[in-house]
């Protein structure tokens, strides 16, 4: 049993850094990563080449001095996005994010008519810009635990048939159905998996009281769904890679009568993954999950520099203070016994 794990500097291929004081407070927590795909769901959302470039500059300014972290920027798709918008963001953004309108935090400006977006998606396919999908329907009559599965059938499958050459990432897969769907695709489809969906299920959200820090979207599901996610992440399958969906919210936002969705995992995602992969007897697959599978799908050079995780005494991390209140760090429900060496 080794007490260190050497990894290529990892990629977090789905990250919320927010803006303003929260960006300042959380940016350092991702600095061990080589790169991250930055989510565009700010208020207002990041919908143009100019606002993407300006956001990237603010992120770089918020990083610790000397941090070797590259933000990979994304466009927020709306009903008003045009093929010309895609022309304009080529070279500024690597991907565009599809939020069905009202599916999750800051998605009110998301897409209502996904079929009408077809010319935009075709232009993305031509230019090699990836489509990142929040895969949940929003129809009131669809149960929240079924929204991912229904989205695959009603929305994603027809979309992929309409634009077969588009590269698509099904983000933060939360169900066995989602895993099976990605596995069933011939090519052009991969999925990200978060650290929190690997370690909690809906009992951890709802048994013994409501646990708001475990509330995220897509909502955590049954134990058997979590087990399918662990299997997909840890078995070396190149179609799955890491995207934390680390989503910081302050306590006033998280703990109110209508608590916000999102788990702030950035400071603990590597220790959680080391725990999960070690428990699965699959530490040899951790490095490719973190730095190879995603880079290959995105067509970006894999990182060469390394970091080391070391086994340590159990620890917990305190909340991160901000002017708007503290941001609690996600608690996986077990002792953290790995840390980044030299951190
Ligand atoms: O839990 C989530 N939080 N899921 C999302 O899709 C969005 C994110 C956020 O921005 O807070
Ligand atoms: Zn997200």
Structural commentary:
This protein has helices spanning 20-26, 49-62, 83-89, 118-127, 147-162, 176-184, 196-199, 202-206, 223-234, 251-254, 269-279, 286-291, 293-298; strands at residues 4-8, 11-15, 35-38, 70-72, 74-76, 95-98, 130-133, 168-170, 189-193, 240-242, 306-315, 336-340. Strand 6 (95-98), helix 4 (118-127) and strand 7 (130-133) form a beta-alpha-beta unit. It has one domain (4-340): Metal-dependent hydrolases (TIM Barrel), CATH 3.20.20. The chain has 13 helices and twelve strands. It has a six-stranded parallel beta sheet. Strands 1-11-12 form a three-stranded antiparallel beta sheet. The chain starts with a strand and ends with a strand. The chain is 32% helix and 16% strand. The model has no long low-confidence stretch (mean pLDDT 97). Zinc ion binds at residues 14, 16, 39, 245, 247.
CATH superfamily: Metal-dependent hydrolases
- Identify the overall geometry: globular
What's the story with the biggest beta sheet? 6 strands, parallel
Order of helices and strands: EEHEHEEHEHEHEHEHHHEHHHHEE
Reading off the top of the CATH hierarchy, the class is best stated as Alpha Beta
Which class of secondary structure composition applies to the elements? alpha/beta
Strand arrangement within the widest β-sheet reads 5-6-7-8-9-10
Question: In total, how many beta strands?
Answer: 12
| Mean pLDDT across every amino acid position | 97
Level-2 CATH architecture:
Alpha-Beta Barrel
The bound ligands are: (4S)-2,6-dioxohexahydropyrimidine-4-carboxylic acid, zinc ion
Number of helical runs?
13
The amount of helix comes to 25-40%
